[in-house]
Design goal:
GO molecular function: DNA-binding transcription factor activity
Pfam families: HTH_27
Strand content: 5-15%
CATH superfamily: Winged helix-like DNA-binding domain superfamily/Winged helix DNA-binding domain
Oligomer: single chain
Radius of gyration: 19 Å
CATH class: Mainly Alpha
Strand order of the largest sheet: 1-3-2
Low-confidence stretches: 1-8
Protein name: Putative transcriptional regulatory protein
């Protein structure tokens, strides 16, 4: 069964023009990103944490153990399509993070996790570790597959950045 699915996947990606493959890749990236949010949300709900979205939990994960300027999170682009300020407000109201404004520049906001936020971050981190060890035995995804994927996605991101920067 797994071999048949792998053959279908290989056939899907082996045919078509570069344009068709590019459009298929865009669609798959978007679907995978949405599915990641679903997986995180599902894991949190199983643990009894029902008040967070997948996006909000990933935001807590990205903030990390120290402090993170909101502008850095926005610049990374990981939260495009969502309102960073809305999610920060909801996380602050829920007691997951603390938002502080700079004394020098009131526009500069720094984010720091509360103990409740750190628990969620730890849960997401453990989920990622569990999934990383399950990739090869359950999904036939090897380290070299991920390495190639990372190279390709990095090249796409650089290509798109150049499109904007140099107005190509």
């Amino acid at each position: 069964m797994v071999v048949n699915m792998m053959m279908i996947d290989m056939q899907d990606t082996a045919t078509g023009t570069i344009g068709e493959s590019f459009l298929k890749s865009l669609s798959l990236l978007e679907q995978a990103h949405r599915r990641l949010h679903d997986v995180v949300k599902d894991d949190l709900e199983r643990a009894g944490e029902r008040s967070l979205t997948g996006v909000q939990a990933l935001l807590l994960y990205e903030i990390g153990e120290g402090e993170a300027p909101a502008s850095v999170l926005r610049a990374r682009g990981a939260f495009a399509g969502t309102s960073l300020s809305y999610n920060v407000k909801k996380l602050q109201e829920g007691g997951y993070l603390i938002q502080t404004r700079s004394e020098d520049d009131k526009r500069t906001v720094t984010l720091r996790l509360t103990d409740r936020g750190k628990k969620v971050r730890t849960r997401v981190e453990k989920l990622f570790e569990k999934q990383a060890t399950a990739l090869e035995p359950t999904a036939s995804v090897r380290a070299d597959d991920l390495s190639q994927l990372n190279k390709t996605i990095s090249r796409l991101e650089r290509f798109w950045s150049d499109q904007i920067r140099y107005r190509l």
